[in-house]
Task: inverse folding
């Protein structure tokens, strides 16, 4: 039977048409007045449709729409919110005011997942939520940024637990025709459908658009009848377990993503890869630049390298995508050959050791080799990443490996409770909204009256307890629990007790069970008659992570003990909705990763913005955020060789902090019933951490440190038919050919044990450059403190000068160091590549030491 599909749009009464505009822009999700419009329209349908306004408008009874269309109060609110949206979309932005001549420096942001709102389930956890918050702040700041991802028909798993506590997964199908997405069409009104070649098959895909404020997010969809079933399934499920499917997804994201942008007439000047999943983007971009500017592959590479940003989120080798070379060859060999690669030459780009034919192909390595701008997501993670990937830059000191850091943040308005947002709007003033980069407004938190701040926080804790009880009842009913157990859910937790939240992806290194190390001590803590404590857990394990599932099962069994069951709960199906209730209602946010395995973490940032206090090991962002006035630290960031010993020590420290500091401070009330010391710590935490750990600051960092310079580099390298890219590629080729000639033949200095602080250390080096000349290189004095293993610690490079007159082909270089500190010091002499169009001078294998 032949069927013809068609779509029926909801019919809105004319006065309600502005609702359609609001529903199709995710701006509504961080604007409480807009959300309140839909709740006021029908609160029950708002929850039934999982806070999806477009679906809600399609299923709400027509009679209700007609009724609301006659409600003058509702219509007045609707007009006001619609005007706010129109003003937001049209008014000058921070970026347009600060950089009026940079409006064309389009940045393309690639991510495999986006957590932008509850009703669009195309995310799994922190990586996606970070990407979603990145887009929202890019919108608030007005950056010329577009985003690219995949549209998953089933998204990520919905979690439910068996009666025994074992995680099960469900994958409901998303109906994109009833979500705030629109199909991208060409001038002929037909969908734009680029293609990619996979193992000889031409795979077509269409492009959907989600408007995130001012920022467009383009999502690729291969579920088209023209494709064979195995390729229609590419965009079925986020993080599909099979390696074959994962590789095809990442080819579609990277290669297909660039093709989609070009098909829509978007030529980005800067590309940003959020994790290595989209690394193939760099190869397709090379191909496109070759075609547009008639360049060789090496010439196009110079443009791509100088204008690509890569953010790594994974501090452990196993977390980086690796594929069997035979599998990569199956899908990419014809494509790669068309660009001019020899197959082994291409494989070498994805190997830490390019000469090892047994090594798998790693997308992180491919990304690192194609991006001049690389970063981790916290200061500690940047340092960890430099150590992890040092092999790509042999002979470069670990501190100078070209991976910096930009610490993550949160989109504050998306995570503040509406109560807290209204309170802060009252006391922080209009700059809190109107000047997104003015972080001094957070200093006004101290002007908020203690009583108002505490009552606002208490209301949020009460709502959290109500929400948890509701979810527990639903969980118990679904499992077929007896009525008496379902009834007990209404007695779980105390709306006035000290409430701790722990909600993360469930993985072994995050140590969800650290607080269960001493069960007797835990029971005494939570059942203290004067100072009771309660804990709310949530989190999903990856479907293939059996260890993570065992952790959830163990927690479920432990909290069924009579002494714990009403004080500790585990909430199923952790998502943006659950996260909002938890970060907005908890008093303390607990985080216990094993240092240094937490790249950043952002859940605690969301909690502190709402007034919760953070309690964590010194890992990820907390290494930068912690101070005794703002929260608590478990240990000092120690790294234990014996994991069990470390867990025992740090669990003891955790109990001590809770028993001796956290609970006493929370329950220390004055005559007015207010915990004044606790409130002061809340204010200090909100003021210091809220001002720093937000995505407005984070996106601003990316802009100033990477995007603007990369965009200028694109203009410079592509001007005049890409002449400077051609010259740079020719210079690099000449450098590679002549580098073997470079030798440091001698080094002389006045270094001895008689140098005093303030004196000069003079160094002379004789350097043979062979076929190169002094303009091709930079000769440096690398100097610093002498480390315990006779290495230079935190060294600094000082450029040496030459008179450019060689003697027998040898140039003399001179430099000096001022001895500013006493103690054991050291120096070395090195030669690095040098060219005015280089982003940095650290090329794999191109460094020569004396």
Result:
């Amino acid at each position: 039977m032949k069927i013809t599909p068609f779509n029926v749009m909801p019919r809105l009464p004319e006065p309600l048409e502005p609702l359609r505009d609001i529903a199709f822009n995710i701006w509504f999700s961080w604007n409480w007045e807009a959300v309140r419009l839909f709740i006021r329209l029908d609160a029950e349908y708002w929850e039934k449709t999982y806070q999806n306004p477009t679906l809600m408008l399609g299923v709400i009874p027509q009679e209700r729409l007609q009724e609301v269309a006659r409600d003058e109060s509702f219509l007045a609110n609707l007009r006001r919110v619609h005007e706010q949206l129109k003003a937001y979309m049209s008014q000058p932005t921070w970026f347009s005011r600060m950089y009026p001549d940079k409006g064309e420096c389009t940045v393309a942001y690639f991510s495999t997942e986006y957590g932008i709102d509850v009703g669009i389930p195309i995310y799994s956890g922190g990586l996606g939520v970070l990407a979603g918050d990145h887009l929202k702040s890019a919108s608030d700041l007005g950056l010329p940024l577009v985003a690219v991802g995949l549209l998953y028909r089933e998204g990520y798993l919905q979690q439910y637990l068996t009666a025994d506590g074992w995680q099960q997964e469900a994958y409901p199908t998303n109906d994109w025709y009833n979500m705030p997405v629109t199909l991208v069409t060409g001038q002929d009104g037909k969908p734009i459908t680029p293609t990619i070649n996979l193992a000889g098959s031409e795979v077509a895909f269409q492009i959907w658009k989600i408007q995130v404020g001012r920022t467009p997010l383009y999502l690729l969809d291969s579920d088209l009848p023209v494709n064979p079933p195995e390729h229609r399934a590419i965009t079925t499920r986020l993080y599909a377990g099979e390696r074959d499917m994962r590789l095809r997804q990442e080819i579609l994201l990277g290669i297909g993503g660039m093709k989609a942008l070009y098909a829509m007439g978007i030529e980005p000047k800067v590309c940003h890869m959020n994790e290595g999943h989209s690394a193939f983007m760099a190869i397709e971009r090379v191909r496109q630049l070759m075609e547009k500017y008639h360049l060789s592959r090496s010439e196009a590479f110079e443009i791509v390298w100088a204008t690509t940003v890569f953010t790594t989120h994974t501090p452990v080798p196993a977390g980086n995508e690796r594929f069997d070379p035979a599998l990569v060859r199956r899908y990419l060999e014809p494509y790669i050959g068309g660009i001019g690669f020899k197959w082994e030459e291409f494989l070498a780009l994805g190997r830490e050791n390019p000469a090892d034919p047994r090594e798998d192909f790693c997308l992180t390595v491919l990304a690192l080799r194609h991006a001049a701008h690389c970063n981790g997501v916290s200061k500690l993670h940047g340092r960890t990443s430099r150590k992890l990937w040092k092999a790509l830059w042999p002979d470069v000191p670990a501190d100078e490996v070209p991976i910096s850091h930009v610490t993550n943040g949160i989109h504050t308005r998306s995570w503040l409770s509406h109560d807290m947002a209204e309170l802060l709007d009252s006391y922080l003033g209009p700059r809190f909204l109107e000047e997104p980069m003015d972080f001094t407004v957070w200093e006004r938190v101290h002007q908020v009256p203690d009583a108002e701040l505490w009552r606002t926080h208490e209301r949020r804790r009460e709502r959290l307890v109500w929400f948890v009880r509701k979810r527990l009842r639903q969980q118990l009913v679904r499992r077929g629990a007896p009525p008496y157990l379902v009834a007990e859910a209404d007695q779980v937790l105390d709306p006035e007790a000290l409430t701790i939240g722990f909600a993360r992806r469930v993985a072994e290194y995050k140590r969800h069970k650290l607080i269960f190390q001493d069960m007797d001590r835990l029971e005494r803590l939570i059942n203290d008659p004067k100072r009771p404590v309660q804990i709310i857990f949530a989190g999903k394990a990856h479907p293939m992570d059996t260890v993570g599932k065992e952790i959830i099962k163990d927690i479920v069994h432990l909290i069924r003990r009579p002494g714990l069951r009403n004080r500790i709960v585990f909430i199923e199906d952790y998502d943006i909705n659950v996260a909002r209730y938890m970060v907005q209602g908890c008093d303390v946010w607990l985080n216990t990763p094993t240092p240094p395995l937490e790249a950043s973490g952002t859940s605690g940032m969301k909690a502190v913005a709402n007034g919760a206090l953070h309690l964590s090991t010194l890992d990820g962002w907390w290494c930068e955020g912690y101070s005794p006035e703002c929260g608590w630290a478990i240990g000092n960031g120690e790294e234990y060789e014996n994991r069990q010993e470390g867990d025992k020590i740090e669990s003891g420290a955790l109990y001590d902090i809770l028993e001796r500091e956290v609970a006493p401070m929370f329950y220390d009330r004055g005559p007015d019933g207010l915990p004044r010391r606790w409130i002061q710590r809340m204010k200090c935490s909100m003021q210091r951490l809220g001002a720093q750990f937000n995505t407005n600051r984070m996106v601003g960092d990316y802009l100033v440190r990477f995007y603007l310079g990369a965009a200028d580099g694109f203009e410079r390298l592509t001007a005049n038919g890409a002449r400077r890219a051609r010259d740079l590629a020719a210079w690099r080729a000449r450098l590679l050919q002549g580098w073997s000639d470079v030798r440091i033949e001698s080094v002389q200095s006045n270094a001895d044990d008689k140098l005093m602080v303030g004196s000069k250390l003079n160094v002379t080096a004789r350097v043979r450059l062979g076929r190169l000349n002094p303009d091709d290189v930079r000769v440096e004095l690398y100097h610093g403190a002498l480390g315990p293993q006779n290495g230079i610690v935190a060294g600094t490079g000082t450029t040496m000068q030459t008179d450019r007159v060689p003697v027998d082909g040898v140039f003399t270089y001179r430099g000096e160091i001022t001895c500013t500190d006493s103690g054991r010091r050291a120096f070395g002499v090195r030669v690095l590549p040098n060219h005015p169009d280089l982003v940095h001078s650290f090329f794999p294998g191109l460094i020569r030491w004396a």
